[in-house]
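To: structure desk
From: M.T.
Subject: fold request, one chain
Message: Could you run this one when you get a chance? Sequence is below, nothing fancy, just the single chain.
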Amino acid sequence: MSVLELQRVTKRYREGQLERVVLREVSLRIDGGELAVVWGLRGCGRSTLLRLAAGIEAPDEGDVLFEGRNLARHGEGALGAGIGYCQKSLGSGSQIVLDVVMVALLAAGVSPAQARSRGREALERARVSSCATLRVSALGAAERVRVALARVLAHEPRLLVVDDPVQGVDLLDRDGILALLRSFADGGLAVLASAGEATGLAGADRTLALSAGELRGPSPAQLAPVVELRPASVRQAGV
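Reply: Done. Structure tokens follow.
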């Protein structure tokens, strides 16, 4: 059984008297241990697709299944307990990083001691444990993404959904974020990510293009456009 399956999913939005079809009969399956990346231009529907996959929104037509369970009809509680949707916003800059990771666990009734332990483990898994005692305002862009991922990982999801993880991250730091997602998939997670640039495709098992509401693919990751992650001038300098 696939971890995530979208079956002929269509999503529409009304804008005044007009109706815009954002997704048109999109089908997709993702298994545990697989990293799939959906890419396309801004406004193509990538974020909508990921919100549907996480159960945040419901399709107008078709079904979204998580481990065989229809999210629209029987998905109560799946988000946060099996499905992890990564929101990159970390809230107030004055908050301590470990507290940011712990807060949702505490709200779910996890004891403070266990929440702290799981929070530290998640930060370690995201390779940002050195930031545990820092304030959010002290984090760089790549560190913010890693902390946001740790906040989700603390809930031990089986499906990780993350919208454009390298957006706003310096070019030299992007390969580390993408390698991190690859390591999550290698550890058994099903990972669905989006990308607005070809630099966000590295390490994927499958890359799928979204255009005019239609999902095209899958295509092998090795056939995706290749863009150097580091400028030639930097490589020649031996960095």
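Reply (cont.): Residues 88-156 form one domain. Let me know if you need anything else for the meeting.
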